[in-house]
Amino acid sequence: MGAHISIPMYQRAVPQRYRLVGQRCGACGKINFPPKAVCKYCYQGTSFEDVQLSGRGTVYSYTVIAGGGAPPEFAAEARCKGSYPVIIVELAEGPRVIAQMVNPPEEGIAIGMPVKAVFRKIYEEEGVIRYGFKFSPA
Amino acid sequence: MESVAIIGAGQTKYGDFPGLGVKELFAEAYLEMLQSVDRGLEQQRIGAAYIGSLSAGSGFQLGQLAPLLMGHVGLPHVNAARIENACASGGYALYSAACAVASGKFDLVLAAGVEKMRDVSSSKGRYWLGVSGDTEYERLAGSTFAGIYALMAARYMHEYGLKREHLSMVAVKNHRHAVSNPKAQFRKEITIEQALKGVPVAHPFNVWDCSPTTDGAAVVLLCNAKIAKEFTDKPVYLKGFGAASDYLAIHDRDSMTRLLATRKAADEAYKQAGVGPKDIDFAEVHDCFTIAEILAYGDLGFAEEGRAQYLLEEGFTQLDGKLPVNASGGLKAKGHPIGATGCGMACEVFKQLRDEAKEPSRQIKNARYALSHNVGGSGGTAAVFIYQRGDA
Hints:
The complex is a heterodimer of chains A (138) and B (392). With 138 residues, chain A is mostly beta strands. Helices cover 14% and strands 43% of the residues of chain A. Chain B has a single domain (4-121, 212-389), classed as Thiolase/Chalcone synthase (Peroxisomal Thiolase, Chain A, domain 1, 3-Layer(aba) Sandwich), CATH 3.40.47. The interface between A and B is large, with 39 and 41 residues.
């Protein structure tokens, strides 16, 4: 029991995790990310067009997960870095997404600061390295 | 719709009990509930039981926990089911039981909750605690529940000028309240200086901003209000009950400074009860993290959004204030046995509204209406209840 994500489950989300593929709603034109079966903005649209997100956005909120408080699968990273920031990014295309931040500025993270998506190792489980997006100061 | 009354309530002490498993915890709360029914209860009259639990004993009995527990207390044939909505499991058990009585289908229904959290290491505990957030995005960002509430706190600070000290004021208040609650896990006052300087957990939170892991169980007996006086002269009426959901992942929500699930649940409960926030004499709210109590003040209508922190500055929600909040010590100091929490709040309200919170200084005087508020995870679900004393 736990928050385990199997390899096939990870694989199914590769378009989002590797390439930030969002979906433009055929009914209202707004962009959903992560994908939904019914548009989260108009509650109507069920057909979508894939769109490549720019990966650019601003920090909407942030926290810094302390070493001792990290989930077990991130414990090694926390031990190595001491702590790591997690942020909510408001993407240029509209949706918000949660992710880690890399190379945070020394003076600290500020709400509103610009960031861009970067491709990074998330963690390793079952002998397979899981990759995905994080954000770095833009 | 039938009216609903509470005629019995019992709970274990909350804490760390290596000698007790889920069955023993549940039985202790159940037997205390039976004793609390003033004129006694023929147990076989209980028509149904809803039992809240997230981990079903740290995962050992994920399936069919409810019949296991009911068989342990001599009711093997009652219609029993487990209810799961993370930290709101107990609240949803209470909500389900209330709906079952209100429907007229059953006259006597049990609402209960149980959680055994202290059998596993803290690393294993963190592994399964994280299953109630959005696993695919929140968890893969390396976040925990503390992290998600910390993101809300940081945004609240940014939008409304909330200070770090305001968070600590919640912890100090609730720890002070817990001192006179014999059922509480931490009956120890802390100073504001201590609360400001705990071990960091997730910025801006330190360990004093977080509720503990807890073993515990709580059981509440509901009945059709028409027959309540058969059992007691002092029933507590459940005048309103509401529950609602929201996007599980925090990044899908429009606002991070309110919980829409709480707002919708509260609207439903207030409307049904025919009262408003100003009528409430005291409340037990879901303070899993200090910011959660501040959000609750706004979401339940006790303060305008963005101004909740001023209630703390004025002492409005202290035991001797105009609207005592978490007189029990709250999740922060009474403890937070996840699935039991929602029903444990109802136990506290039951005692208070019957003037049975006998410990020095804990009894809230002349209270007529009370509210309890239970949240699942970071607000994916919420349940709100309005109670009225029945001896007036």
